[in-house]
User: What shape does this take?
Amino acid sequence: GNSVTQMEGPVTLSEEAFLTINCTYTATGYPSLFWYVQYPGEGLQLLLKATKADDKGSNKGFEATYRKETTSFHLEKGSVQVSDSAVYFCALSDSQAGTALIFGKGTTLSVSS
Amino acid sequence: GAGVSQSPSNKVTEKGKDVELRCDPISGHTALYWYRQSLGQGLEFLIYFQGNSAPDKSGLPSDRFSAERTGGSVSTLTIQRTQQEDSAVYLCASSLDTLTKLFFGSGTQLSVL
Assistant: This one.
Protein backbone atom coordinates (compact mmCIF):
# COMPACT_ATOMS: atom_id res chain seq x y z
CA GLY A 1 0.00 0.00 0.00
CA ASN A 2 0.90 3.66 -0.14
CA SER A 3 2.89 5.17 2.71
CA VAL A 4 5.01 8.16 3.62
CA THR A 5 8.03 8.19 5.92
CA GLN A 6 9.54 11.42 7.14
CA MET A 7 12.37 12.17 9.50
CA GLU A 8 11.51 12.30 13.14
CA GLY A 9 11.86 15.56 14.97
CA PRO A 10 12.10 17.79 16.63
CA VAL A 11 14.46 19.72 14.42
CA THR A 12 16.01 22.68 16.22
CA LEU A 13 17.82 25.35 14.21
CA SER A 14 19.10 28.87 14.61
CA GLU A 15 17.72 31.63 12.44
CA GLU A 16 19.24 31.73 8.93
CA ALA A 17 20.33 28.08 9.08
CA PHE A 18 19.73 25.68 6.18
CA LEU A 19 16.81 23.31 6.57
CA THR A 20 16.25 19.84 5.18
CA ILE A 21 13.38 17.61 6.22
CA ASN A 22 13.59 14.21 4.58
CA CYS A 23 10.57 12.46 3.13
CA THR A 24 10.40 9.17 1.25
CA TYR A 25 7.36 7.42 -0.07
CA THR A 26 6.03 4.08 -1.22
CA ALA A 27 3.32 4.04 -3.87
CA THR A 28 1.98 1.53 -6.34
CA GLY A 29 0.96 4.14 -8.91
CA TYR A 30 2.03 7.65 -9.85
CA PRO A 31 1.33 9.81 -6.84
CA SER A 32 1.21 13.52 -6.39
CA LEU A 33 3.35 14.72 -3.48
CA PHE A 34 2.66 17.50 -1.00
CA TRP A 35 4.07 19.31 1.98
CA TYR A 36 1.55 20.67 4.46
CA VAL A 37 2.40 22.94 7.39
CA GLN A 38 0.68 23.47 10.71
CA TYR A 39 1.67 26.68 12.49
CA PRO A 40 1.07 26.86 16.26
CA GLY A 41 -2.62 27.23 17.01
CA GLU A 42 -3.61 27.03 13.35
CA GLY A 43 -5.01 24.39 11.01
CA LEU A 44 -3.05 22.52 8.38
CA GLN A 45 -2.45 24.31 5.13
CA LEU A 46 -0.81 23.38 1.88
CA LEU A 47 2.78 24.59 1.57
CA LEU A 48 3.74 23.18 -1.83
CA LYS A 49 3.12 20.29 -4.17
CA ALA A 50 4.50 18.41 -7.17
CA THR A 51 2.42 16.22 -9.42
CA LYS A 52 5.00 14.35 -11.50
CA ALA A 53 8.60 13.22 -11.47
CA ASP A 54 11.25 15.97 -11.56
CA ASP A 55 8.70 18.67 -10.75
CA LYS A 56 9.82 21.18 -8.14
CA GLY A 57 7.27 22.68 -5.80
CA SER A 58 8.12 25.97 -4.13
CA ASN A 59 6.49 28.48 -1.82
CA LYS A 60 7.62 30.97 0.86
CA GLY A 61 11.28 30.10 0.19
CA PHE A 62 10.68 26.38 0.65
CA GLU A 63 11.38 23.91 -2.14
CA ALA A 64 10.95 20.20 -2.74
CA THR A 65 11.76 18.16 -5.84
CA TYR A 66 9.85 15.01 -6.79
CA ARG A 67 12.57 12.34 -7.22
CA LYS A 68 11.12 9.15 -8.62
CA GLU A 69 14.45 7.33 -8.72
CA THR A 70 14.92 7.76 -4.96
CA THR A 71 11.19 7.94 -4.14
CA SER A 72 11.85 11.12 -2.20
CA PHE A 73 10.40 14.59 -1.76
CA HIS A 74 12.73 16.32 0.69
CA LEU A 75 11.78 19.78 1.93
CA GLU A 76 14.50 22.45 1.90
CA LYS A 77 14.88 26.10 2.77
CA GLY A 78 18.09 28.06 2.50
CA SER A 79 17.58 30.38 5.46
CA VAL A 80 14.95 29.66 8.07
CA GLN A 81 13.19 32.27 10.16
CA VAL A 82 11.63 32.09 13.61
CA SER A 83 8.23 32.34 11.91
CA ASP A 84 8.91 29.01 10.15
CA SER A 85 8.55 27.18 13.46
CA ALA A 86 5.75 24.70 12.84
CA VAL A 87 4.96 21.06 12.20
CA TYR A 88 5.61 19.93 8.63
CA PHE A 89 3.79 16.99 7.06
CA CYS A 90 4.78 15.17 3.89
CA ALA A 91 1.86 13.58 2.04
CA LEU A 92 0.95 11.73 -1.12
CA SER A 93 -2.16 11.22 -3.16
CA ASP A 94 -2.53 8.47 -5.72
CA SER A 95 -5.28 9.99 -7.86
CA GLN A 96 -5.30 7.09 -10.32
CA ALA A 97 -6.12 4.71 -7.51
CA GLY A 98 -8.63 7.19 -6.11
CA THR A 99 -7.08 7.18 -2.68
CA ALA A 100 -7.21 9.86 -0.04
CA LEU A 101 -4.23 11.94 0.95
CA ILE A 102 -1.85 9.88 3.09
CA PHE A 103 0.31 11.84 5.54
CA GLY A 104 3.59 11.18 7.26
CA LYS A 105 3.80 11.56 11.03
CA GLY A 106 5.01 15.14 10.90
CA THR A 107 8.28 16.83 11.80
CA THR A 108 8.37 19.62 14.34
CA LEU A 109 10.68 22.49 13.44
CA SER A 110 11.77 24.97 16.08
CA VAL A 111 13.78 28.01 15.01
CA SER A 112 15.41 30.25 17.58
CA SER A 113 16.74 33.78 17.10
CA GLY B 1 -19.15 29.02 3.78
CA ALA B 2 -15.75 30.62 3.79
CA GLY B 3 -13.97 27.55 5.08
CA VAL B 4 -14.41 24.08 6.52
CA SER B 5 -16.41 24.28 9.72
CA GLN B 6 -16.28 21.67 12.46
CA SER B 7 -18.35 21.37 15.59
CA PRO B 8 -18.00 21.14 18.45
CA SER B 9 -14.52 22.55 18.82
CA ASN B 10 -14.11 20.69 22.10
CA LYS B 11 -15.90 17.63 23.42
CA VAL B 12 -15.39 15.99 26.78
CA THR B 13 -17.17 12.70 27.30
CA GLU B 14 -17.17 9.74 29.61
CA LYS B 15 -15.83 6.37 28.61
CA GLY B 16 -18.55 4.26 27.02
CA LYS B 17 -20.65 7.16 25.71
CA ASP B 18 -21.31 7.80 22.03
CA VAL B 19 -20.20 11.04 20.35
CA GLU B 20 -21.01 12.73 17.07
CA LEU B 21 -18.65 15.14 15.35
CA ARG B 22 -19.87 17.36 12.56
CA CYS B 23 -18.14 18.75 9.48
CA ASP B 24 -19.45 21.37 7.04
CA PRO B 25 -17.17 21.36 3.98
CA ILE B 26 -16.60 24.23 1.61
CA SER B 27 -19.55 24.54 -0.73
CA GLY B 28 -18.95 22.72 -4.02
CA HIS B 29 -16.14 20.54 -2.74
CA THR B 30 -16.84 16.97 -3.78
CA ALA B 31 -14.16 15.31 -1.67
CA LEU B 32 -14.35 15.14 2.13
CA TYR B 33 -11.86 13.55 4.49
CA TRP B 34 -11.67 12.71 8.17
CA TYR B 35 -8.32 12.43 9.91
CA ARG B 36 -7.25 11.93 13.50
CA GLN B 37 -4.29 13.74 14.97
CA SER B 38 -2.77 12.51 18.20
CA LEU B 39 0.57 13.02 19.89
CA GLY B 40 3.21 10.69 18.56
CA GLN B 41 0.92 9.30 15.87
CA GLY B 42 0.87 12.14 13.41
CA LEU B 43 -2.06 12.50 11.06
CA GLU B 44 -4.02 9.28 10.70
CA PHE B 45 -6.43 8.82 7.79
CA LEU B 46 -9.89 7.61 8.81
CA ILE B 47 -12.38 7.87 5.95
CA TYR B 48 -12.75 9.58 2.59
CA PHE B 49 -15.85 10.53 0.58
CA GLN B 50 -15.59 11.40 -3.11
CA GLY B 51 -18.76 12.48 -4.86
CA ASN B 52 -21.28 9.67 -5.16
CA SER B 53 -18.69 6.91 -4.95
CA ALA B 54 -18.64 4.45 -2.08
CA PRO B 55 -16.54 5.92 0.74
CA ASP B 56 -13.06 4.64 1.45
CA LYS B 57 -13.39 3.38 5.02
CA SER B 58 -10.02 1.65 5.11
CA GLY B 59 -8.64 3.91 7.83
CA LEU B 60 -11.36 3.43 10.42
CA PRO B 61 -9.66 1.83 13.45
CA SER B 62 -12.61 -0.26 14.61
CA ASP B 63 -16.30 -0.90 14.01
CA ARG B 64 -17.08 1.63 16.74
CA PHE B 65 -16.26 4.32 14.18
CA SER B 66 -18.61 5.26 11.35
CA ALA B 67 -19.27 8.27 9.18
CA GLU B 68 -21.98 9.55 6.91
CA ARG B 69 -22.14 12.30 4.35
CA THR B 70 -25.65 13.49 3.67
CA GLY B 71 -26.58 15.08 0.36
CA GLY B 72 -22.95 15.26 -0.66
CA SER B 73 -22.31 18.01 1.85
CA VAL B 74 -22.34 17.78 5.66
CA SER B 75 -20.61 14.82 7.25
CA THR B 76 -20.95 13.29 10.71
CA LEU B 77 -18.33 11.08 12.32
CA THR B 78 -19.78 8.87 15.03
CA ILE B 79 -17.76 7.08 17.67
CA GLN B 80 -19.71 4.56 19.71
CA ARG B 81 -18.77 3.36 23.19
CA THR B 82 -15.82 5.75 23.38
CA GLN B 83 -12.53 4.60 24.88
CA GLN B 84 -9.72 6.67 26.38
CA GLU B 85 -7.50 5.90 23.40
CA ASP B 86 -10.03 7.69 21.19
CA SER B 87 -8.89 11.00 22.71
CA ALA B 88 -7.39 13.06 19.89
CA VAL B 89 -8.07 15.96 17.56
CA TYR B 90 -10.42 14.94 14.77
CA LEU B 91 -9.83 16.91 11.61
CA CYS B 92 -12.08 17.27 8.61
CA ALA B 93 -10.91 18.50 5.23
CA SER B 94 -12.49 19.07 1.86
CA SER B 95 -11.23 19.60 -1.67
CA LEU B 96 -12.60 20.11 -5.16
CA ASP B 97 -11.16 16.71 -6.04
CA THR B 98 -8.21 14.55 -5.10
CA LEU B 99 -5.85 16.47 -7.37
CA THR B 100 -6.30 19.78 -5.61
CA LYS B 101 -5.29 20.96 -2.19
CA LEU B 102 -7.15 20.09 0.95
CA PHE B 103 -8.71 22.75 3.12
CA PHE B 104 -8.74 21.74 6.75
CA GLY B 105 -11.13 22.68 9.52
CA SER B 106 -9.90 23.67 12.96
CA GLY B 107 -10.73 20.25 14.34
CA THR B 108 -12.63 18.83 17.27
CA GLN B 109 -10.59 18.11 20.39
CA LEU B 110 -12.11 14.96 21.88
CA SER B 111 -11.27 14.01 25.45
CA VAL B 112 -12.55 10.71 26.82
CA LEU B 113 -12.37 10.52 30.59
Observations:
- The CA atoms of residues 54 and 66 of chain A lie 5 Å apart.
- Chain A touches chain B through 21 residues (CB under 8 Å).
- The longest strand of chain A covers residues 86-93.
